[in-house]
Amino acid sequence: MSEQPTRWTSATVYPDMWTDPDDDPRNTDGASPDGELATLQDYLRDYRLTLLMKCEGLDAQQLARRSVPPSSMSLLGLVRHLAEVERDWRSWITTDGPLPKLYPDTDASSDGDFDGAVGEPAVVDAAYADLAREQSETDAALAAHPDLGQRLGKSRIAVRELMVHRIEEYARHCGHADLLRECVDGRVGQ
After folding, report:
1. Where is the sequence biased in composition, kind Polar residues (predicted)?
2. Within a domain: residue 14?
């Protein structure tokens, strides 16, 4: 990358924020959720929103830009990857075999989530639809198991562990999204 975009934020109250607190969809009425399950769901919801916020306002080419060579990672690739892992997590809680991949690898050196993330509007639309569908289906599958200590699937994973793993996965990739977005157009903020 030879050109570096100028850093900026839309926030006017705190210069290190992505947006002003009154405009932030992650903000709640100030009361924290009651109970462990509600807390985990709240954190997951906020990280999911953060990922979408980091992608807002970009066109297909910008979303597909590999901003940190030699990595194949892009914002669009992250959306596709998280759709794939949401699907994979459902395989953890069933005794059936794994679901087929959404974005199959074409060879041993490829990563279908990221390699297929090309800057075409139809690919972007499909990725967002895949993510929403897979999140909804995983949420529904886990809603049938509100006991966080219940163990599921062949590996007997606890619902709690799966919920924490989901939060960790989104949080880690939101960190990647921070850097990727800054490289695309200079926008910064948590």
Report:
1. 1-12
2. no
